[in-house]
């Protein structure tokens, strides 16, 4: 990261960090958004771009420095290391471009006012094919933690951009301070009704009273730079009783992660939260946070954690759902031996998930071609088809097992059934056609 910051300082550009992992489906969706010609052209021209594989050893430095909890997490950083904003969700190309233009324009106006470009400027012309390369996917080796910035805050975005990037909060909105570009004097907002300071940039949080910390928390969440977490923790540390109705509302507004103390407090005091917030909303909150960790959590939940998470929701059979979740993780990580071992440990006869049955029967058949094993695998393949007879993959699996059994009739029937169901899926169709050619040689 130190290298990227050095380049950013030299070129007077912001740094953009994209974190991802191979198992993260939303990360794969973001690949498509980054490949949008307008996005790729703008980021390549205006940012120092870093793409970090969070499954690599050095990713721990990014995790700690930028508090990466969910994937994908995209971070905008100034050349001196200040985090301007963090997005930990799928952002469509138009929103990503809008946010990038806003921060880049603000950076340009502060550092080079004469070259400033309004955030309402028209979209760039459609680039030539040679200009449509995706955002550069260079990985920068982390050398040291970045230093803390003393630069003034970024100005509040224009209404059209703010609508796209600002999260919803329960408290009334507080106007963001305008940066003082002439001096380092902190910007201040005062509350005329109460005569108290609502927000002071750079103030020592330990010296602020609880009522100001509370307002500070709602202000900082609008900055989208992650700074509100520290303020929320400071406010809650000042409270002897978290279970007051006021604090329950506050905690609910700032529950972000199912691994946090705030979430654990919600689970332990669920009845109180349901009384104050409402049972439907609390159930929805829990389901959202559980799904968020299961689908995008970093690091990915293991089997025991999955059992715990599914147990918090209102879904039936949490243990069985955790088993399927864990098996999917093993299979996608290509840990086939562990996948087979786990299936056999829990008992293949207990598995109802059709995709798991298909995967297990396919892998087991290829590992052991004895007549008895192939017969058992065929039974599992047929069980999967009975659950979903419209799946081309399931019929292809049956055809492959029949081919190993040297049963050309069943293999051919199943292969043609798979081909009919495959439709426009070229990859599956090619695999089916290759198998049909092999069957014809039996």
Percent range of helical residues: 40-55%
CATH superfamily of the largest domain: Glutaredoxin
| Structure annotation, total helices | 20
> What name does CATH use for the topology of the largest domain?
Glutaredoxin
Global shape: globular
What is the top-level CATH class of the largest domain? Alpha Beta
Secondary-structure arrangement, i.e. CATH architecture of the largest domain: 3-Layer(aba) Sandwich
Mean of residue pLDDT values: 82
Content of β-strand: 5-15%
Supply Rg. Answer: 27 Å
Give the tally of β-strands: 6
Describe the structure.
54% of the residues lie in helices and 7% in strands. It has 20 helices and six strands. The N and C termini lie far apart (58 Å). The chain has a four-stranded mixed beta sheet with strand order 2-1-3-4, sandwiched between helices. With 442 residues, the chain is of the alpha+beta class. It has three domains: 2-144, 3-Layer(aba) Sandwich (Glutaredoxin); 187-293; 346-439, Serine Threonine Protein Phosphatase 5, Tetratricopeptide repeat, CATH 1.25.40. A hairpin with a 4-residue loop joins strand 5 (188-191) and strand 6. 33% of the residues are buried.
